């Protein structure tokens, strides 16, 4: 089966570039509109393809804060969206490589919506392992999905997690879970101690990061809360963890 036959028109055009791999071009944000809610409504998302297709891994990322990227399609079919300063969104280009593709969507607790996106990706790339990642307030969603979508994807990644992470039971789960936090995250709703408590209580793998830059609001992405200055290190550790599974 042609894995691209159900992709959006803009997606197909972008992947038809006259080159041997997407690595030869600038990383592309593609607008995809082939996912659907159970009632048929469209769920658009941003797709950053792997350099070589099909991808082995797909990382679905949701921004923190208000969680809305305001996704729209430009006249030329390319996506327009905001939130690009968010840790997970701004690192999408270094996550995508020969093996990894990235999906960017709004945060939200709708299991129907996430299942629609996951189903769409599995239709296109049935061999890919899919992981869902949130950061800061969007870990409210990754915690909820880890509890209600266990076994439906390969894993969940909780970065700079809200304090509720301390109570997430991850033992005897079908999907893997990873917690990432900065030792000096100063945001009161994402206290490092909660992530450490989960690791101590349930044995969930934890990356306790150090270093980088700190400036501005401690709950924004311009400092330790958003891994400013150590983005590559954090991304490399997350990708290595995914590959170990």
For this entry, give a set of tags:
245 residues; 8-stranded mixed beta sheet; alpha/beta; two-stranded antiparallel sheet; globular
Low-confidence stretches: 1-6, 9-26
How many β strands by DSSP? Answer: 10
Radius of gyration from CA coordinates: 17 Å
Outline, from the CA principal axes? globular
Summarize the structure.
Helix content is 26%, strand content 22%. It has helices spanning 9-15, 87-90, 92-95, 111-124, 139-148, 192-202, 231-244, and strands spanning 30-36, 42-48, 57-62, 72-73, 79-80, 100-104, 129-135, 155-159, 176-182, 205-209.
Outline the structure in words:
The chain is an alpha/beta fold and 245 residues long. Helix content is 26%, strand content 22%. The protein contains seven helices and ten strands. An eight-stranded mixed sheet has the order 1-2-6-3-7-8-9-10, with helices on both faces. The two termini are 27 Å apart. The model is unreliable at 1-6 and 9-26 (pLDDT under 50).
Topology:
Layout: H1 9-15, E1 30-36, E2 42-48, E3 57-62, E4 72-73, E5 79-80, H2 87-90, H3 92-95, E6 100-104, H4 111-124, E7 129-135, H5 139-148, E8 155-159, E9 176-182, H6 192-202, E10 205-209, H7 231-244
Parallel strand pairs: 3-6, 3-7, 7-8, 8-9, 9-10
Antiparallel strand pairs: 1-2, 2-6, 4-5
